[in-house]
What we know:
It is built from ten helices and ten strands.
Amino acid sequence: MSEPLLEVQGLSTHFDVRGGTVRAVDGVSFSLGRGEVLGLVGESGSGKSQTGYSIMGLVDPPGKVVAGSIRFEGRELVGLPSEQLRALRGNRMAMIFQDPMMTLNPVLRIGTQMAEAVLAHRKVGRARALEEAHHALERVGIPSAGERLRSYPHQLSGGMRQRVVIAIALLNSPKLFIADEPTTALDVTIQGQILYEMQKLTRETGASLIWITHDLAVVAALAQRICVMHKGKIVEQGDVDQVLRAPVHPYTRGLMDSIPSRNPRGQRLRTMPAFEAP
């Protein structure tokens, strides 16, 4: 059996604040195979986004990874100097944020930002970088790619901006994508298009994907495996079909029961009971 692309063992990320210590990520362990899509699900505040930020080395103070191991392509990331982490981000591993305006600079043209993402990691000419940017926009289904390269972020729709962010992530052919609820603010039609494009891109590139979301329907359509998070811990993980069809942990069952379509017509919507993570 080949070595996993990503191995997370006992990961803990804490925030020391005035009221005490917040255990945002508390002993999380999972692995990600090459070419695999993993869904990381849970309600808001469960720690799923902070897990992604911890892997990428993007936890801001007062947050800090206090324990555990993150091995990417056999290389330990915890404690890695910031310069070496920056060399990996956007190159071997990339993150797609929920709000594209967190990624895009509002005062720079799309082409300028995409070219800089290429030039930061590879010694190529600017013309070549813009050519690759043009190709990346076409890959994610953006029409009139040359015109979009000359546009500013505010001139694009929300769905178009999210496609641009995905295209930027693709530029250096990373082996790991971490997508932090990138379709939450989009309408259903655009969401479906982006999910299709992400499935197609992972198949074509052989890259691995961690899809962070609270939407179980999206995970069911996209992922092969699922990790369910609650209060900073993973309470259940396994094959996505098995977990969603026959959840074992009461929190997972509670998530499933909270979906309106699963409740008989005319019955009151079931609500999520209080659970304590193990």
